[in-house]
Amino acid sequence: MNAEQDGGAPNRELYAVLQVSPESTTEEIRRAYRHWAQVYHPDKYQDVQMKETATENFQRICQAYEVLSDETKRQIYDIYGPEGLSAGLELATRTNKVEELKEELERLRQKKEEEKMAAQFIPSGIVVTSLSLPQVLDGDGIMSGMAMSSQVNTTLSKHTNLAMGGNLEVNNHGAGTAASTVLRHQLSSAQSIEFLAQVGLQSVIGVQTTRYVSSHSTATIGIRKSLQDGSINLSNTWTHQLSSTANGNIQFVLGDQSSVAVGWRKKDDKMSAGGELKVGTRYLGASAHYVHHFSSKSHARIAGKYNSTTLEVEVGGGRKISDLTTVRMMYVIGIQGISWRFETRRGSQKLVIPLFRSSLCNRSICSSNISLLPV
């Protein structure tokens, strides 16, 4: 095992930790490890500073022995150094052929490069098709509308990201489109700034900045101007980490859409809950939900929502029947009527089927939605 024959000097750092030569046998490396492990074992020292130094040296000795005591890892280290080990070659098929190790390293390097490129350009999108059973019973077509949206996120530099998206919605009442662009730049580890431009149903431009004011709080200040009527809205949002599993926020908006909103969220292994109250010049609404997880596969949910056009409560539960599929049955009571809903999710696809409806139930509740998220 002579790396010099392969065109480069052998890597010696780990050998120096154990104070052995690269030509040492496995038994010589084992004896050196036992010796230095006894010398630097942390339990032998009472002084705090000496104990910390001994602990650091002991960890280095163990790490060096872990590599040099394994024949394949040692060979990879001798040829490629720490880079080969960090690339995951220690998990490769065990072989003594240097040519195969080189091929594996090149393959892993190429894979990492592809992953890096993919992380800089991330497309996403969703297509929603609405199928209405009441419409069929009334003698109309089964499809009541369709909506499509897509977004592309790309990394321009280490601190700058760009997101571009578009939406298209078609229903019985007409069609609408919108396109948006968001440029986000990280000014520092504690502050970022975003520039927004949107055209379509709501054409606006805006800018907002977010800053960590403490280890548990963030503040966001923004301004938006409508390109349609020239109105301006100022916003200020404060978010505070209430505990390791809960956070709260309050938002103030000043302008033609002035409002105050207060929200709260909590999530742990057993439950998740949240709520929001929003009061504005053109809006009054509140919503809340609670989900309890009986196990990793089953849960119960209760939720409520109120605004100027909606008042409803839903109760139900769901179960995960496979790694990708979850089913849920919900009972919904609202001013529009009463209905049972059967929901199934498989991966990023969702199907909602109404099983019963009262005579007061309108078409927006008694409809099936199929959501397809392309990979």
TrEMBL record:
Cross-referenced CDD domains: DnaJ
SUPFAM superfamilies xrefs: Chaperone J-domain (SSF46565)
J domain segment(s): 13-81
Protein keywords: Coiled coil
InterPro entries: AtJ13, DnaJ_domain, DnaJ_domain_CS, DNAJC11-like_beta-barrel, J_dom_sf
SMART domains assigned: DnaJ
Coiled coil segments of this chain: 91-122
Domain of life: Eukaryota
Gene3D superfamilies for this protein: DnaJ domain
Protein name as catalogued: J domain-containing protein
Species of the source: Linum tenue
